[in-house]
Amino acid sequence: MNNMSSITRREMLRNTAILGSISALSFLCENPFVFAAENKAVQNDAVTKLGWQIGPQIYSFNRFPFDIAIKKVKETGSTSFELYSGQRLSQDKNVKVGPDLKGGDFKFFQDLLEETGCKPHAMGVCPADRKHFEFAVKIGIGVLNLEPAFNKIPEVNKLAEEYKIKVGLHNHPKASIYWDPDIVLNQLKESGDQIGACCDTGHWLRSGLDPLECVKKFKGRIVSFHIKDLAKEGNNFKFVPLGKGDCKITEILKEIASEKVKCPFSVEYEAEWDNNVKPVTECVKFFRETAEKIITQ
Questions:
Q1: Fewer CB atoms inside 10 Å of the end CB: C or N, the chain?
Q2: Topology at the third CATH level for domain 43-296
Q3: What average pLDDT does the segment 254-279 reach?
Q4: How much is the pTM?
């Protein structure tokens, strides 16, 4: 009797384990974005420990259709990246990446993410409309970087709360409406916790501002980064790999770490458009090495 009970319990535990494994596999097969995130995009390194994500803003590869650009993301050593709405899906498909992807085209897009093991950590700078929020939820993006008109902020705030999506108000250079951090902070006064700043380091430098001081102004309200480095050359600015310009990238990362900000960083390198995988790779490498130094100091 006792022996039979023992066997029954063992069998029951074994069957439970098998069913659990089948259930987990079924879930992953039905959710390719989860599979990519959990099995391919997770990196056990200093960046992850700090609660950060690093990878290209795929706009850096906008001279190529998405099916080629996503492979360039992988070449940089990244499995995380920022999507932009409007990139051609492939040379053979005259459709754009974004909320209008349907049926086989959307499946093609999904398959590319799964095959490369890449997962978008943000999307921007895109229209501040409901369909982009719906698309973000559909593919598992947690951050939208936007530049809505001031009178659209209440609507964006409601959408962000409804869809539980973080919104970063992005600063293009002067005279963009969000060029000055004080302007962004003023718009955030009446916004909920879902809305904060998308900090574009290079655009602040172009606007005559100190990127480090701008970052410090947003303490507690940073959602994301468009991280780039520029070197001043007279009245002009030249794109350079992170850490080689005048944007104070190392100091910014130390500041963000001290504030315990957890957010995605999207590398932008808007030069050498047809052949810029190498400098983007240098940016990613510098970022990871700096993160490692931060957690070991």
A1: N
A2: TIM Barrel (3.20.20)
A3: 98
A4: 0.85
